[in-house]
Here is the input.
Amino acid sequence: MEDTLITLFCIVDEFCKEFYPEWEKTLIIQGLKKRRRQSRIVPSEIMTIFIYFHMLRFRDFKTYYIRYVMP
Here is the structure.
């Protein structure tokens, strides 16, 4: 199970490295870019948590977060 999570994170991280710079360009061109604070967790980590939540088919996010993300 841990190998699956690591593989998933690597795939999501590679996607984010390509996607976010292009997305930022469109926000600047459209004038939609606003100030955002730097977060402690990168977007690829957030996406991995959500994708893995759906892969494990939990019914509620709180239980998943307490059992798998927090420890």
